[in-house]
Amino acid sequence: MHDCVKTRELLVDLVFDELGPEARRRALLELEGCPDCLAQYRSMTEALRVFDQVTETAMPDESYWPGYETRLRERLRHERPSWMRTSWMGWLSDWIGGFRPLTAPALPVAAGLAMVLLVIGWWTWQRRHVVGPSPGAPVVARETPTPQPKVESPDEVIATTTKPGEFLNRRKSVHPKATESNGKAPSVRREERGGKIVDDDVVSRGPDQSLIAASLFTPETIKHFEKAQLMLRSFRNASAAKSLAATDLAYERQMSRRLLYQNILLRRDAEMKGNLPAEEALSSLEPFLLDIANLPDKPSSGELGGIRERLQRKELIASLQISSAQPSAPAYKIP
Amino acid sequence: MIQEDKLIERAQEGDQEAFCLLARTYQRRIYALALHYTRDPHEAEDLSQEVWLKAYRAIGGFRGEAGFYTWLRRITVNTFLNHQREMKTMYSGEKKAFRLGELVSLDELGMTPAEPRQAPEELLQQKMMVEKVMEGLGELTAQQRLIFLLKHREGMTYDEIARACAVSTGTVKKALFRAVNRLREYLGVKFSAAEDVSYAARERR
Fold it and tell me: Is residue B147 part of a domain?
């Protein structure tokens, strides 16, 4: 018995091809028996056919597209892919000068490392040529054998010897932090007594990545990066294991939750202080912490592989390693 | 011709040229969706380009688990839904009419109909038909319009549309029914029962 209401309910499925072959055959049989239902079905398919025909004419012709592409290019010029927006590598590449090849993901890291090496090289060169021998070595007056008046300026440190007849004033560069004590010019002295240099106040140490990291991030953030780095390494190794027991990642998940909370606080803090490098570094870390913290008890290898692959692609562990390079001892003690 | 996956790889490395080549492949399709969704050529360009900008920002996260177009369509739907929300806030309750004048402005943009050698009367008739279609679409809510376009132009299943738009399959079916009926109404497509005696039999074959 034909039921118009039921048949018409099927018309949409029929028109949009959502019925299986058998259901379709039955529906068409029903239509054959009811001219009204059939008329409705035909008018629906016809409306769609006319729609297709008409809408084709509303499309712009070929001459429109070059302009469209130009406008799109123009808008894209101000854009950056997310890996650059959210990571401090992007900030670094911008800072270096927006050099075009730096848009490749590995290159900002390489450029960053090259910059660090350059700074180290320059610092070492400065120390060798201006400061003279390293601590502990016998002091030999090379530059000025005669006593010179003490010059104390904010960016200079006087190193003096008290050895009779051997006064040596040496100029040496100072880390900018050393100039910050109460707005006074620092007077860090290295004194030699009895032929031995007493290095109480100044620890001469070759600068490294840690100095740069220290200037960009707060000690708390550096510590956070260190923990995150360890956790991510542990996650990477655990998730790469062939047989993955459910308990294997319990530690990483728990740790991720803690770090996530800390990360949010630090990111907000950096955001408020306008510390862009810290904010971006923390922002790029956050999705990973979130993903690991939200892993199910028995994560699939696909889920783990996805996170691992992103970690590798973003070179996050390496970035964190640079960011968390802790100064092994305070470089300068400011009195 | 450079393979799509190579272009994707290069675009993921930040190569804008590669990304533009990718966009060229699909820009007409995305634009057509935007045009029927917004019913305004200017807005359609804006919205479709917004889709490309979002895709560019997110391309680093494309893992190739689904096809590139499937991924892009997801971005398109989300962009359209966001646009819908913004429009709701900006022009609540206001209905936009698609007028012939707007079609004339297609010419200003260098957008002339596909067959330039048509007679002026034919051209006018075509424009009036487009106007009718757009008005018919204008009678639908933005969501119903999107559902209709995703089904009819994109060939997505009820389930896929329901997931993409966060609605039930029942809502999808209702929206489609309403959309087709509006189009029927506006395009003046009517069939008498007498004309269709052998139609179903032909279809079945």
Answer: no
